[in-house]
Design a protein that fits this description.
The complex is a heterodimer. By secondary structure, chain A is an alpha+beta fold. Chain A contains 6 helices and 13 strands. In chain A, the strands form 3 sheets. In chain A, strands 1, 6, 7, 8, 9 and 10 form a 6-stranded antiparallel β-sheet that branches. By secondary structure, chain B is of the alpha+beta class. Classes of the chains: A alpha+beta, B alpha+beta.
Amino acid sequence: MSTAAESVPPKGGFSFDLCRRNEMLVQKGLKQPSFLKTGTTIVGLIFQDGVILGADTRATEGPIVADKNCEKIHYMAPNIYCCGAGTAADTEAVTDMVSSQLKLHRYHTGRESRVVTALTLLKSHLFSYQGYVSAALVLGGVDVTGPHLHTIYPHGSTDTLPFATMGSGSLAAMAVFESKYREGLTRDEGVKLVAEAICSGIFNDLGSGSNVDICVITKGKKEYLRNYMLPNPRTYVSEKGYSFAKKTEVLLTKITPLRELVEVVEGGDAMEE
Amino acid sequence: MNVADSAPAMNNLLASNADSQRTLYPYVTGTSVVGIKYKDGILLAADMGGSYGSTLRYKTVERLKSVGKHSIIGASGEISDFQEIMRYLDELILYDNMWDDGNSLGPKEVHNYLTRVMYNRRNKFNPLWNSLVLGGVKNGQKHLGTVNMIGVHYEDNHVATGFGNHLARPILRDEWHENLTFEEGVKLLEKCMRVLLYRDRSAVNKLQIARITEDGVAVFPPYSLKTFWNFNAFQNPTVGAEGSW
């Protein structure tokens, strides 16, 4: 590196310095770490007084379950929550970013955030990245204009729906919704239907599993029911713990000191030359 | 399943003589078949659509047929290959009848025959591009199984092909139980077919149900399902969010 480059202050933006080295490593056969995906079932549904969001809690890295109990329902505003499917880092980052933007907007306007604001911020961000930010979201909330439920796809398109599902378990959950949804559901009926849809995803889709999280948002109130249902308990736990039968006898215990490799130079510092 | 080429003629020009002798992609396809065991036997349901790529070209394709006295078969995938399979099965049943030995091929035997045929064709890289559901009753024993184009076969209390696996199986796992009556069974199948109609783009609203019991086969006349499109949220959906749909 020339000395001229060091004296120039960094201008910000993405630094491409390591790209060539990464490419070289890949060519030499390095396996790059894969993405942590939330192969997922997320659902949302509009009921009488508001919105209910549901999600499973399994995060996968390829065929391995990386996190058995992760949180997929993200906070956006006191009256708006967002479920995320796709690459975990992308959903976390994009929801955190828009959540901060919404807070600043609340300070600026002095009003409660609206769901369409979050929707527009998310969709314009995702569209500008042309689908590379792999986040599929179910956004729901209640604001002054009423309850709203939207789905947002990684390329930036949105749908406004009375009930929605996303993620790898979306077909299993949608099968439940399409056969059982009706208008004017009460809170308890709605929560039961959402839990049923998530369970359908958990048990019929390999990318979803573990527990059910639910979030109920109504006018002026929200209930975040973390681990509302735990349909996959660990059934066989030994109370005694593990004890291995003592079949081995200790014949001899011998301690052999390792040979010292350090040569002690007598008189004077070894470093003095 | 591959989407059929929009210009099938071109493929013949591009493929060599050897290649054009084997199935490379399906052209006219049928969508899911769903089957369940019930108290007296087996019930199968399939719609009557034959798609040519993304066009719904044929709307009266019978995808459920009886095989001998003891079985019924439902097929999804390439329709011409299904017709070929029916020729093989008709020949099989004919030869069995000609023995005139008082025995007749039961559903287990027909299922096994189909599995061998499908698997051997796949090994020669010339598959019959179908997923089949085979059900029947013989001597009080109910049998319901499926075979697909690569030779994967299994039996269960409820089976489905194609999209049916993703949309209908979860419902069946939840709501199927031993000793369904005929009416309950049909209602359950209709529930599955309705979800498929809403969510599978190649489904048509014209379905057939076939039933087989110890007494024989009945393939019922086609009918359509009632659908509901009047949710409040579907009228003016984007009144709150301009620019989305």
